[in-house]
UniProtKB/TrEMBL annotation:
Listed InterPro entries: SAM-dependent_MTases_sf (IPR029063)
Native source species: Amycolatopsis rubida
Protein name as catalogued: Class I SAM-dependent methyltransferase
Gene Ontology BP terms: methylation
Gene3D superfamilies, sorted: Vaccinia Virus protein VP39
UniProt xrefs under SUPFAM superfamilies: S-adenosyl-L-methionine-dependent methyltransferases
Length: 251
């Protein structure tokens, strides 16, 4: 994985849409079919954030991805589809419940997916020291966020996605989102979001491009796209500067 790819920007994301438009279109068709095959499955990722996740994984080509929280495996299948299209990389998913094991396509899972059922605070310890991409969509309370901010982030060198941060322009107090945003500000870590409530310009620009490229078909009806993306380096904490003076989403 490229160590220099430490910032996600709107320009980068737009370039990835253009580079991988054909593959993304095929991935969306496959995800649409996957959703039709499991109509009861709760699909947690909105289309734009799912697409960005797929595109970043295609660019970064991580060898080791860890997903904390999967529910019915919608995000899991998106991640695995990117790894399959890369022809490299493996995913470990941790969740308190095992619903994802019933829905993730066998063809995607075989040889590249491990599922661990239980509490990430105990199961993730041995997984994260060499993780390349960390995807978090689990407990959205402040206590859980404080765990990974203090116990995980200072020890990893990885790209990170955190879901459900910007359903509003600013996260509600005492939530995971408010804790993460505070950490990003303290460490001066740049981040990107295409959340409609937080980054209207980025959201609009990406939708214009998606229409232009013909990859704007609807797979998931949600439009919030509240996920954030950033890069952290080992031993970054509130006492160190992580990424420079820019802390707002890149536009």
């Amino acid at each position: 994985m490229e160590r220099t790819a430490h910032q996600v920007t709107l320009d980068l994301v737009r370039s990835l849409y253009r580079e991988h438009a054909e593959a993304l279109r095929a991935a969306k068709d496959a995800q649409h079919a996957h959703r039709r095959a499991h109509p009861a499955m709760k699909t947690q990722l909105d289309d734009v954030e799912a697409e960005i996740t797929y595109l970043l994984l295609r660019r970064l080509r991580p060898e080791k991805v860890v997903e904390i929280g999967s529910l019915h495996g919608w995000s899991t299948s998106w991640i695995l589809r990117a790894l399959a299209d890369n022809g490299a990389g493996k995913l470990t998913t941790i969740d308190l419940i095992g619903n994802a094991t019933k829905t993730v396509p066998h063809a995607l899972a075989t040889g590249r997916w491990e599922f661990r059922q239980g509490d990430a605070r105990t199961l993730a310890v041995d997984l994260l020291s060499d993780v390349n991409y960390l995807f978090i969509d689990a407990d959205h309370g402040a206590r859980f966020a404080r765990w990974y901010l203090s116990e995980v982030f200072p020890k990893i060198d990885a790209a990170v996605s955190v879901h459900d941060v910007f359903h509003r322009a600013t996260p509600l107090p005492f939530t995971e989102g408010s804790e993460v945003v505070r950490w990003l500000e303290k460490t001066r870590t740049p981040y990107f979001t295409a959340a409609r409530a937080r980054a209207k310009h980025a959201y609009a620009r990406l939708n214009e491009l998606r229409r232009e490229l013909g990859v704007d078909s609807t797979v998931h009806t949600g439009r919030d796209n509240p996920m954030i993306y950033f890069r952290i380096h080992r031993s970054v904490d509130a006492r160190r500067t992580a990424g420079g003076p820019e802390v707002a989403p890149f536009r």
